[in-house]
Design brief:
Helices cover 34% and strands 18% of the residues. The protein has 382 residues and is of the alpha/beta class. The strands form two sheets. It has a nine-stranded mixed β-sheet, with helices on both faces. It has a two-stranded antiparallel sheet with strand order 5-6. Strand 5 and strand 6 form a beta hairpin. Helix 6 packs across helix 10. The model has no long low-confidence stretch (mean pLDDT 95).
Length: 382
């Protein structure tokens, strides 16, 4: 059984809020679900599959009950920020197997309003917590190693933020809309050497949702046809320090099967949605996905190469997590949403990629320098 071309994205919605002190997390899930259903032209009675992750309050059973669904398939796989990319692949599997015909994937949360719950601790906790690992210093460790090994510079990383800011200026909902320069990034305070404040993503409330369905149902609706033609997922951990290499992510394993399934190569991609929790996250993933050789990411991203209309690989044209939205500190959902907008021709005219018929959405979940998952989805306009 193949899942290539079996899953069509019929509805999308990104919550416009970036700060929601007056809403519950469950309410945000309900609002993004309704938005995606309205976009698709469907009703909640059509939903027979539901996918959610650790951001869903009470878990999948509580959310199905709260949202009033009657489902015959559900999935609560949680791999952090890339959960929703993983969910798209799993939804395609379920649709291909006849387990459901209209699947909903939701994300929502409120980290800007209040602190996130404590991060779950695995079996490794007793050995690692004593050393004070935080999200910032773990990603900074990856950046420092990449710089040491390949000569990558802070100026090169800064170009990633610059590109995101050029796109965010056209997004009315973006949290940060000011265009910045390389100098602005380098002059922002150091958070964890060598990462500056502008190398870090925003923290936002909000969420988003996707409707995934069969070809038959998708063709009966009024939206442009966008289907998934390739998917891959992988996990990387430090394995007790055995053969530890901080300069690559699990994307080196999730990308090849996705490209093979899709029957395309990185050179064919017109638009890239790349998880951008930090600038180093983007640079490493671009290498791991095959857009450039390992160690050449710094040169690849420099001089505006990621800016739509300027460079050869437009990325995160909504402003991404670096400037627009990183709801629940989980950015995989928004990567899918903007990829679909580009393929539909619904991105802002100033950043819309001409003749965009092939896009990639890729993300990681967990912490890049320790253990994390990665998921790669290749989408096509039909």
């Amino acid at each position: 059984m193949t899942i290539r071309g079996k899953a069509y994205i019929a509805g999308i919605y990104e919550h416009p809020t970036r700060h929601a002190p007056d809403k519950s997390i469950a309410q945000l899930h309900a609002e993004v679900a309704k938005g995606a259903l309205d976009d698709a032209g469907l009703t909640k009675a059509d939903i027979d599959g539901y996918f959610c992750a650790g951001d869903a309050p009470g878990g999948v059973m509580a959310m199905v009950d709260y949202l009033g669904f009657k489902v015959r398939h559900f999935d609560s796989t949680d791999t952090g920020g890339c959960s929703y990319l993983v969910h798209l692949g799993h939804a395609a599997e379920a649709i291909a197997a006849g387990r459901c015909s209209v699947a909903l994937i939701t994300l929502a949360g409120k980290p800007r309003t209040g602190a996130l719950p404590p991060r779950p601790v695995g079996a490794e906790g007793d050995f690692e917590l004593a050393y004070g690992a935080t999200t910032h210093n773990v990603y900074a460790m990856c950046a420092a190693r990449h710089m040491h090994q390949y000569g990558t510079t802070s100026e090169q990383l800064a170009w990633i933020k610059v590109a995101a800011s050029h796109h965010a200026q056209y997004n009315e909902h973006a949290m940060l809309r000011d265009v910045v320069t390389v100098e602005d990034v380098l002059n922002s305070p150091l958070i964890a050497d060598p990462l500056h404040r502008m190398d870090c993503c925003v923290v936002t409330d909000g969420g988003g949702a996707l409707i995934v369905t069969t070809e038959e149902i998708a063709r009966s609706l009024k939206k442009p046809l966008v289907r998934m033609i390739g998917a891959g997922e992988a996990i990387k951990g430090p394995r007790g320090g055995h053969n530890l290499d901080l300069t690559y992510s699990a994307g080196v394993w999730s990308a090849p099967p996705a490209f093979e399934m899709a029957g395309v190569t990185p050179k064919d991609i017109k638009y890239a949605s790349i998880y951008d929790s930090f600038t180093i996250t983007v640079l490493m993933q671009l290498e791991d996905l095959g857009f450039c050789e390992k160690g050449q990411g710094g040169k690849f991203v420099a001089d505006g190469n990621l800016i739509s209309g300027v460079g050869k690989l437009p990325f995160n044209t909504d402003g991404g997590g670096l400037c627009s939205n990183h709801p629940v500190n989980r950015g995989g959902m928004t990567k899918l949403l903007e990829a679909v907008r580009q393929l539909r021709g619904e991105a802002h005219p100033k950043v819309q990629v001409p003749n965009c018929d092939l896009a990639i959405a890729h993300g990681t979940g967990g912490m890049l320098g320790i253990r994390h998952a990665a998921s790669t989805c290749i989408l096509e306009r039909v």
